């Protein structure tokens, strides 16, 4: 960790303010329990704290501080009480322990499967969909309330385009050594439990010509104006979410560009890490295929051994030789694909950010399928993630099913619509898909706006059996609220197989009771331990030890995260008598430079520390030591930081968007029962909105510490583990298999 440079102007300040080492007797540490506090804001609703049940509102002061208005938003209070869901699909269910949005999907209609081969002529999906069993029961339970429905809006115009919309550079292709396409392909194989690949030649010969397109994607249909999503009142007293018992064990392969902790850029890595473990715990056979990056955390891979040495992956007119390694990542079975070519696709020192990213991942997706086929693996489900692996279903149905891979069904999870892999026709030549007349079709891969471009993520949506995104609210926003970065019409067309599942967090990695990164362990019953961590955090960052709350931000320094509001929040927090800690970094050096400038400007403040970089260890300490976690995103598909923060009793202060709206319920304005409220929420993306929520949070901390403490306990009691989303995904898998 970079240490705070000495403060030149106030050299004596440092010594006098230096926090004592963790574990030393508390001096002036503020523990919000009771007592008088500085009057820093308007009065809060007075809540009778109870050690047992929910707090009760006794009297209500002004709901908003002078600094900002009440969260706005028609009948929908900020984040409160009612979860929007896609009609008729997204049906959140709730339970005291797991009040979260459920796996959704519009009542699913006929999905692509090898049996569904029809002529390419577009035809509407006419049949009335039948929900999968679990969802049907959830749907039956839900009650829509017209009052909370977002207004029906016509399909919005697209306002933004993918930033990485690059055309694949021909130069890269030229640099690829073209080994001849191997005759007959490599020896066939099966994989043992430890990953070694053995076996006999597959009976099916590789294609000598492009297969006849016998299995077109689902036809584009006239875009219909859907019902706006209904809002569903859920209460903690409702039945727990539907659980499908006695599901047979299945074979699931995740194909992914990232997995924590070995190759992590953002939340996608955490999702793959947590979900795969949950699926395995439930008795399924789970394997993971990812690139073998040179900059992986190899110290987290056990028993890395070659598993398949002679994988030749078709590429342009030839093929690239690859090795496949097997290893365990914290008990997860992982295959790592290493191509041997001058392109050095995955030996770049970092994961993303290269001009040929589209080709790098188009290759990886092809290599993953080639490996499955050569290894004789026939998973029941192939689960792909984001545009980087969205070509997998395209390859499967356009190439590999004709080689005999007709068994797998494909689920694609889209973690962020901003990145879509938009590229030129070079992609078709590189991958062997060829047939521009077929793939530059609006109903297949043609980009919805640029008729000369292919859109890989769109292809994934069209060809997958089920498309999930990471929260029901984000599913709605992407389809109906203009957040789909141009893919709104495609989502409408395929709405029958589209829905949202809120991510979980890995309760082994994120658990204040056992977290090895923090000095003092604590739980909801020993919550005072949190304040030893607060002292440790201050000590580590050389912040003053005083009675102030610590407001924190952890995240990628990306405009998506609301960086201008983060900047405003730093000054606002200091002004309102709080401390501020930021941990973040950006691949964009301009953004990093801005935050470095801010850091220098605030260098002398004993109440502020900005850490520009990626630091897993420090992140844990911040989650444990901060009082509030700010997530003011412009858009947020799911968001893990607020979930992790709640697990550590750190109160989220969030904008009501995407998964934040599905998981954080405002202390003052939510329609939820008091014991379900877990944070502060604002609606409008502006400084006033931010201040309305952050001001109330800081005021509550100072003026009503007992309420703040109740809020912390509420947050810690929620179940945001993978338990529920794991079941949701299994329901999806079994649904797609049974179609
Ligand atoms: P996104 O996927 O958009 O980056 P999420 O909230 O879904 O955002 O996930 C972010 C994850 O990355 C969280 O686990 C968060 O703690 C972690 N993270 C983000 N930035 C940093 C950083 N600079 N140092 C350590 N962890 C970070």
List the helices and strands and how they pair.
Blueprint: H1 11-17, E1 46-48, E2 56-59, E3 82-85, H2 133-141, H3 170-174, E4 190-191, E5 197-198, E6 230-233, E7 251-255, H4 267-281, E8 285-291, E9 302-315, E10 318-329, E11 332-340, H5 357-374, E12 381-385, H6 391-398, E13 409-414, E14 422-423, H7 426-431, H8 436-439, E15 454-455, H9 456-463, E16 466-469, H10 472-480, H11 488-493, E17 498-500, H12 529-541, E18 550-556, H13 563-575, E19 579-585, H14 589-601, E20 608-612, H15 616-625, E21 628-631, H16 641-647, E22 651-655, H17 658-663, E23 680-682, H18 687-703, H19 705-717, H20 723-738
Parallel strand pairs: 7-8, 7-12, 8-11, 12-13, 13-16, 16-17, 18-19, 18-21, 19-20, 21-22, 22-23
Antiparallel strand pairs: 1-2, 3-6, 4-5, 9-10, 10-11, 14-15
Helix pairs in contact: 5-6, 6-9, 12-15, 13-18, 18-19
The protein binds adenosine-5'-diphosphate (ADP).
Protein architecture, described:
27% of the residues lie in helices and 16% in strands. It is of the alpha/beta class and 739 residues long. The strands form six sheets. It has a nine-stranded mixed β-sheet with strand order 9-10-11-8-7-12-13-16-17, with helices on both faces. A six-stranded parallel β-sheet has the order 20-19-18-21-22-23, sandwiched between helices. Strands 1-2 form a two-stranded antiparallel ribbon. The structure holds adenosine-5'-diphosphate (ADP).
């Amino acid at each position: 960790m970079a240490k705070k440079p000495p403060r030149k102007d106030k050299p004596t300040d440092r010594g006098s303010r230096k926090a004592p080492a963790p574990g030393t007797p508390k001096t002036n540490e503020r523990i919000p329990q009771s007592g008088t506090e500085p009057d820093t804001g308007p009065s809060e609703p007075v809540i009778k704290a109870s050690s047992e049940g929910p707090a009760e509102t006794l009297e209500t002061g002004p709901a908003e501080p002078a600094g900002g208005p009440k969260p706005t938003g028609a009948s929908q209070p900020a984040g409160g009480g009612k979860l929007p869901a896609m009609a008729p699909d997204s049906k959140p269910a709730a339970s005291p322990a797991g009040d979260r949005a459920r796996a959704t999907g519009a009542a699913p209609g006929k999905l692509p499967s090898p049996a569904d081969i029809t002529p390419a002529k577009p035809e509407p999906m006419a049949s009335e969909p039948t929900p999968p069993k679990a969802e049907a029961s959830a749907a039956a339970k839900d009650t829509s309330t017209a009052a909370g429905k977002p207004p029906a809006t016509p399909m919005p115009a697209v306002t933004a385009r993918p930033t990485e919309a690059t055309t694949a550079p021909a130069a890269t292709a030229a640099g690829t050594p073209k080994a001849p396409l191997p005759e007959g392909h490599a020896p066939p194989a099966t994989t043992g439990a430890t990953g070694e690949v053995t076996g006999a030649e597959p009976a099916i010969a590789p294609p000598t010509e492009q297969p006849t397109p016998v299995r077109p994607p689902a036809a584009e249909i006239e875009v219909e104006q859907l019902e706006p999503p209904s809002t569903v009142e859920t209460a903690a007293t409702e039945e727990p979410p539907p659980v499908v018992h006695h599901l047979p064990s299945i074979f699931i392969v995740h194909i992914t560009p990232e997995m924590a902790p070995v190759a992590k850029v953002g939340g996608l890595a955490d999702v793959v890490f947590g979900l795969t473990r949950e699926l395995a715990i439930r008795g399924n056979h789970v394997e993971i295929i990812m690139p073998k990056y040179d900059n992986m955390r190899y110290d987290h891979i056990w028993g890395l051994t070659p598993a398949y040495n002679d994988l030749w992956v078709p590429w342009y007119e030839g093929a690239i030789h690859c090795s496949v390694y097997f290893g365990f990542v914290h008990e997860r079975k992982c295959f790592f694909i290493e191509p041997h070519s001058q392109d050095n696709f995955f030996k770049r020192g970092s994961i993303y950010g290269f001009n040929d990213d589209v080709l790098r991942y188009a290759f990886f997706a092809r290599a993953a399928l080639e490996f499955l086929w050569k290894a004789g693996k026939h998973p029941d489900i192939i689960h792909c993630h984001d545009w980087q692996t969205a070509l997998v279903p395209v390859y499967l149905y356009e190439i590999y099913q004709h080689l005999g891979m007709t068994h797998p069904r494909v689920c694609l999870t889209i973690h962020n619509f901003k990145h879509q892999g938009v590229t030129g026709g070079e992609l078709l030549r590189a991958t062997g898909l060829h047939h521009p007349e077929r793939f530059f079709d609006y109903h297949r891969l043609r980009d919805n706006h640029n008729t000369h471009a292919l859109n890989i993520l769109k292809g994934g949506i069209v060809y997958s059996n089920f498309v999930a995104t990471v929260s029901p609210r984000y599913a709605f926003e992407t389809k109906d609220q203009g957040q789909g970065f141009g893919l709104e019409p495609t989502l409408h067309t395929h709405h029958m197989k589209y829905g949202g599942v809120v991510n979980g967090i890995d309760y082994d990695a994120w658990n204040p009771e056992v977290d090895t990164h923090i000095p003092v362990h604590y739980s909801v019953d020993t919550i005072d331990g949190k304040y030893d961590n607060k002292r440790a955090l201050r000590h580590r960052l050389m912040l003053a030890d005083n009675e102030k709350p610590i407001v924190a931000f952890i995240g990628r320094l990306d405009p998506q995260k609301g960086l201008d509001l983060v900047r405003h929040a730093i000054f606002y927090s200091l002004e309102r008598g709080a401390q501020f800690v930021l941990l973040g970094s950006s691949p964009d050096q301009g953004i990093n430079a801005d935050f470095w400038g801010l850091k220098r400007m605030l260098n002398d403040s004993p109440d502020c520390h900005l850490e520009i970089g990626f630091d897993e260890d420090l992140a844990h300490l911040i989650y444990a030591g901060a009082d509030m976690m700010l997530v003011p995103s412009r858009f947020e598909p799911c968001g893990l930081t607020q979930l992790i923060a709640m697990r550590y009793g750190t109160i989220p202060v969030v904008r009501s968007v995407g998964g934040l709206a599905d998981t954080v319920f405002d202390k003052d304005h939510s329609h939820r029962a008091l014991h379900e409220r877990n944070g502060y929420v604002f609606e409008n993306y502006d400084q006033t909105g931010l201040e309305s929520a952050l001001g109330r949070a800081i005021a509550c901390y100072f003026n009503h510490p007992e309420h703040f403490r109740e809020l912390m306990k509420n947050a810690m009691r929620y179940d945001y583990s993978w338990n529920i989303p794991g079941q949701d995904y299994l329901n999806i898998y079994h649904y797609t298999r049974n179609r």
